[in-house]
Design goal:
It is a single chain. The protein is α/β, with parallel strands linked by helices. It has a single domain (about 5-150), classed as Alpha-Beta Complex (Nucleoside Triphosphate Pyrophosphohydrolase), CATH 3.90.79. About 15% of the residues lie in helices and about 40% in strands. It has helices spanning about 55-70, 135-150, and strands spanning about 5, 15-20, 20-25, 35-40, 45, 50, 70-80, 85-90, 95-100, 100-110, 120-125, 155. The longest helix is centred in the middle third of the chain and has 13 residues, at about 55-70.
């Protein structure tokens, strides 16, 4: 489902939902970061998605990374909580969702890179090449926090 992101935009539509979601900063042994080129907004992002009823939040991380990238992971830590009310996503079905994302660190434990209906491209990216990708500022904040390896999670 296509979406439009509004970030610090006074003309953004008013949010009518909040859905807990996750993203995972997955780094391989070479220090590269697992990134997807999203089909819904044509931006590069960490893999992730919505939390489903009946699963733990760590199960959500494992499921979403596998579904979007083909890579199996284990959760290794918490990067932060991202709930900016000035970042909303408008979907073509009328839903306007306020951001509520939990970013985790995760380690790859298996699988092979594969695309999905949500990811048109999946690749391991050297952090020095992130500026070459079109990444939403809100997602880039998560990435920067994950790469910084802060001792305490971000809350904002």
């Amino acid at each position: 489902m296509p979406r439009r992101d509004y970030f610090n935009d006074a003309n953004a539509p008013k949010a009518n939902s909040v859905v807990p979601s996750v993203v995972a900063a997955v780094r391989n042994q070479r220090g590269e970061l697992l990134m997807i080129h999203r089909t819904d907004n044509n931006l590069w992002a960490l893999p992730g998605g919505g939390h489903d009823v009946g699963e733990s939040i760590s199960d959500t991380v494992v499921r979403e990374v596998r579904e979007e990238t083909g890579i199996e992971v284990e959760v290794a830590g918490l990067v932060g909580l991202y709930t900016n009310p000035r970042h909303v996503m408008a979907y073509d079905d009328g839903e306007v969702r306020q951001q509520f994302s939990i970013c985790f660190m995760a380690r790859p434990v298996g699988g092979e890179l594969a695309t999905s209906t949500e990811s048109r491209e999946v690749r391991w990216v050297d952090p020095s090449h992130l500026d070459e990708l079109n990444i939403h500022p809100s997602m880039r904040l998560r990435i920067d926090h994950a790469l910084a390896g802060q001792a305490t999670p971000y809350v904002g």
